[in-house]
Design goal:
It contains 22 helices and 16 strands. By secondary structure, it is an alpha/beta fold. The chain folds into 4 domains: 211 residues, no CATH class; 119 residues, Aldolase class I (TIM Barrel, Alpha-Beta Barrel), CATH 3.20.20.70; 103 residues, Glutaredoxin (3-Layer(aba) Sandwich), CATH 3.40.30.160; 121 residues, no CATH class. The strands form 2 sheets. Strands 1, 2, 3, 4, 5, 6, 7, 8, 9, 10 and 11 form an 11-stranded mixed β-sheet that branches. Helix 15 packs across helix 16. The longest helix has 22 residues. It starts with a strand and ends with a helix.
Length: 565
């Protein structure tokens, strides 16, 4: 697919400090918005050329400035040509800051199958820093209103964002915003400037949010995506002639070739577009571009698959050399990480992303199926498929879970609402413990005290009494009060006692308390306790069992200290 990018507006109601458009466009010239005649000529001429070159699909990207400052021309162009022109298939993308989007616009874009890309750099505080209006006020409320309209009407949408100093430590907020607004795609670019982030810091943060997006069901792509596709398809970027055909058309009707180095300094009148790709001038420019990339990329390990893509991104935004090497280093680090094979296994109740091939992961998958089947018999099927990610090394696992402050011995952890991360493919009894968490989170009340959730997970893992184990632990560690064990977060147990589960007094005490509850009242009553949600957990406990939690704690202690079973 070949791109035609129409810069339909040099106007914008925002004043984003990082914007490359207005650094490169003379806004004082008389051309503020593209006329319909220029847009029509550009589209028909480009399609004519691409048809001659054997192309079948064209993606038309509407760009600015703020594109919706020229919405009449955009709508007329889309309405006139729809999805077909000169026998070519057209698809449309409108890039916008969202502030001028109306309900009428949303319905129009839905009707004509237009993909809307809204620029947003995070949640309110960060976004207002990076994208203020002309008088310095925040604009997040306008962007949020646009997302709400698109979500309301089911319009295809994507978030476009940059990784920059203001938001690099808050990239997960963009994913959270996407989830809130029903957006499944984020295009996360780099901030191309001499003040670019150090490659190692950028790489770490980008990788962290990439896996976070995977966990949340949000796909994150970026300018590296073309390179990755080339690697996966064993294709040379140098031989992809169609990349050189991507064309940008300015508001004033001049055009330039997006893939050529330092291309924005080379503009031609729109009347030259017909026949341009067959001309001697184009062939000369292409030879020069190939020679430039051959020299610049000679020692790069991504020479064949990137072949100047990282350089071109910098030139497109800045027309300069200052950040080329930094961006190339970004790209090398990131592609090296992503090209580790990732295998997908679709089970009945789980989707597994694995850095191990099937023959290596097979014992884990077998145990996973067995544990899921056992849990389904106890709790019923999960409400949503569980997402499992198997990491090859502990560093990737730590990047994904670094905010959880896990002890160094942890190699697997469940994450709300329905994901499980593990290092390696070793199968242990800890797997069913973590999977039980996912079933509890998906199917039952959200305010379960930690002693109940952890106790049930341990009880499911091993229903037998653990009194002797707990007695031994109580000889060196103090038993905890019910109040201490009633934390909202299960991770609090690891803060109170960082030992492994089998030697952790919080886990083993909770297991013994659940065992006592089941023996006294039966498993069906425990399931009833898990389901109740109209009243507090303590009130629900008293309604079911006829006595308060304080009495339960006292009777458990009496039993534990006196019983031999």
């Amino acid at each position: 697919m070949v791109w035609l990018r129409l810069h339909v507006s040099n106007l914008c109601n925002f004043a984003c400090p990082h914007c490359h458009v207005f650094e490169l466009t003379d806004n004082q010239r008389p051309y503020k918005v593209m006329t319909y005649e220029v847009a029509e000529q550009a589209l028909t001429s480009f399609c004519h050329e691409m048809k001659q070159l054997g192309q079948k699909q064209i993606r038309v990207s509407i760009y600015g400035g703020e594109t919706l400052a020229n919405k009449k021309v955009i709508k007329r162009l889309i309405e006139t040509h729809g999805s077909q022109l000169q026998g070519l298939e057209l698809s449309w993308v409108v890039n916008t800051n969202g502030s001028l989007l109306t309900e009428e616009d949303a319905l129009f874009f839905l009707q004509h199958d237009v993909d809307i890309h809204i620029s947003c750099d995070g949640k309110e505080r960060v976004h207002n820093l990076t994208r203020p209006d002309k008088v310095g006020k925040g604009t997040f409320h306008k962007v949020a209103a646009a997302f709400a309209l698109l979500k309301k009407h089911g319009v295809s949408r994507q978030i476009n964002s940059y990784t920059m100093p203001e938001n690099v430590d808050h990239l997960k907020d963009i994913v959270d915003l996407a989830v809130e607004q029903g957006v499944s795609r984020i295009y996360l670019d780099a901030y191309y400037s001499p003040e670019m982030l150090a490659p190692q810091h950028f790489y770490h943060k980008y990788k962290e949010v990439y896996y976070y997006g995977m966990q949340k069901g949000v796909t994150i792509t970026g300018p590296w995506h073309t390179i990755l596709n080339n690697i996966m398809e064993n294709r040379s970027q140098r031989e992809r002639e169609e990349l050189f055909w991507a064309t940008d058309v300015n508001v004033d009707g001049t055009f330039y070739m997006s893939y050529f180095p330092l291309t924005k300094k080379l503009n031609w009148p729109l009347s030259d577009l017909r026949g341009f790709y067959q001309s001697d001038l184009y062939k000369k420019l292409r030879r020069q571009a190939l020679a430039y990339y051959d020299q610049s990329c000679a020692s790069c390990p991504l020479r064949e698959t990137c072949y100047g893509r990282a350089i071109q991104q910098v030139h497109y935004h800045l027309e300069g050399e200052g950040t080329v090497e930094i961006n190339c280093e970004y790209t090398r680090r990131w592609i090296s990480s992503l090209t580790k094979p990732v295998y997908h296994f679709d089970l009945k109740q789980a989707l597994v992303f694995s850095q191990f091939p099937e023959e290596v992961a097979r014992p884990f998958l077998r145990q996973l199926k067995k544990d899921l089947a056992a849990l389904e018999k106890i709790f019923g099927p999960p409400q949503e498929n569980i997402r499992i990610v198997l990491y090859e090394n502990v560093d990737d696992f730590r990047i994904q879970t670094n905010e959880m402050n896990l002890p160094s011995w942890v190699r697997g952890v469940a994450v709300r609402p329905g994901s499980y991360f593990q290092v390696g493919v070793e199968t242990t009894s800890a797997l069913i413990h973590e999977l039980t968490h996912l079933f509890l989170w998906q199917k039952f009340r959200e305010d379960l005290p930690a002693w109940v959730s952890e106790g049930i997970c341990e009880f499911v893992r091993s229903p037998a009494s653990n009194r002797r184990v707990l007695k031994k632990l109580a000889g060196t560690k103090s038993l905890r009060s019910l109040k201490e064990l009633s934390q909202k977060s299960e991770l609090a147990f690891l803060q109170m006692d960082p030992d492994v589960v089998d030697k952790n007094v919080c886990y083993q005490q909770s297991r013994n308390m659940v065992h006592f509850l089941v023996r006294r009242h039966g498993w069906p009553s425990v399931m009833e306790l898990l389901r109740g949600s109209r009243v507090s957990f303590s009130t629900n406990f008293k309604q079911i069992y006829g006595y308060p939690l304080q009495q339960f704690e006292a009777e458990w202690r009496k039993h534990f200290l006196g019983s031999r079973s």
